[in-house]
Design brief:
By secondary structure, this protein is mostly helical. It folds into two domains: 9-39 and 117-229, no CATH class; 55-115, no CATH class. The protein has helices spanning 9-12, 22-35, 63-67, 111-115, 119-124, 134-142, 150-168, 182-192, 209-229, and strands spanning 17-21, 56-58, 74-76, 85-87, 98-99, 102-103, 143-146. The strands form three sheets. Strands 2-4-3 form a three-stranded antiparallel β-sheet. Strands 1-7 form a two-stranded parallel sheet. It has a two-stranded antiparallel sheet with strand order 5-6. A hairpin with an 8-residue loop joins β3 (74-76) and β4. The structure holds iron/sulfur cluster (SF4).
């Protein structure tokens, strides 16, 4: 368990929150990414993600969601077709739809909100960034996965290794293949973690950083291909 990030003394001051068995959670979040669906997160009363300066992507087909949001709060999404919209946030990082500490469109919230799970950062051993991310970072540091079997531990170590490798070897990747944003980095690590399992088939432990980067790119492309064809990722 040497490679799993341990909490610092200051993080121990707040109670830990059970994040579930790692392997079960990992399979679930990979299916969420594959099927483009939501996930049940044991948030309790936490609304940290609704106060953390996230732009919320709302797709053209989410008509019920779009209908409930003041058009003045919505913007086009750079690089995506017309009809895709971004919901902005207030200067303090809070979503304008969070009213009296509750989501005012909860039953009709976007797919982006339904699929958000800050355990991805705990899994990857990274925080969510800096810009108004204090609340969500505090929450991330409190999650504790459980490891009922060796596989849980091996997979968690592999996800963290993947995130660390991608972050520390950006120069080995083709241009545009390394996410600049923490969310996308954590998601990429979750998609390609099997490259970093000890029993992973090539590349072996002796391969170069560039070969490893190539394997990461290949694993991500394979995941995306399965997502598009609806075939479950191995
Ligand atoms: S739309 Fe609702 S769930 Fe989504 S960020 Fe805003 S308040 Fe939170």
């Amino acid at each position: 368990m040497n490679d799993v990030t341990k909490p610092t003394d200051s993080e121990i001051e707040k109670p830990e929150i059970p994040a579930g068995d790692f392997s079960v959670w990992l399979e679930d979040i990979r299916q969420v990414l594959l099927q483009d669906r939501g996930i049940e997160v044991p948030c309790g009363g936490c609304q940290a993600c609704c106060k953390s300066s996230y732009f919320i992507h709302i797709r053209p087909e989410e008509k019920e969601t779009l209908r409930r949001i003041d058009k003045k709060l919505l913007f086009p999404v750079p690089g995506l077709p017309r009809g895709n919209r971004l919901l902005g946030y207030f200067e303090n990082g809070q979503c304008p739809l969070l009213v009296d500490e509750r989501c005012s469109i909860y039953e009709h919230r976007s797919k982006t909100c339904r699929a958000y799970d800050c355990r991805i950062f705990a899994a990857a051993g990274i925080d969510a960034g800096e810009d108004h991310k204090t609340l969500v970072n505090e929450r991330i540091r409190r999650w504790r996965f459980s490891y009922p079997g060796q596989q849980d531990l091996d997979q968690h170590v592999a996800v963290q290794k993947a995130a660390r490798f991608i972050r520390e070897h950006a120069e080995c990747f083709p241009e545009g293949k390394v996410p600049h944003d923490s969310s996308q980095l954590a998601i990429l690590a979750i998609k390609v973690y099997n490259v970093f399992l000890n029993d992973g088939q090539p590349p072996g432990p002796a391969c170069s950083d560039r070969e490893m980067a190539q394997a990461v790119v290949g694993a991500n492309e394979a995941f995306e291909a399965r997502r598009k064809t609806g075939i479950s990722p191995a």
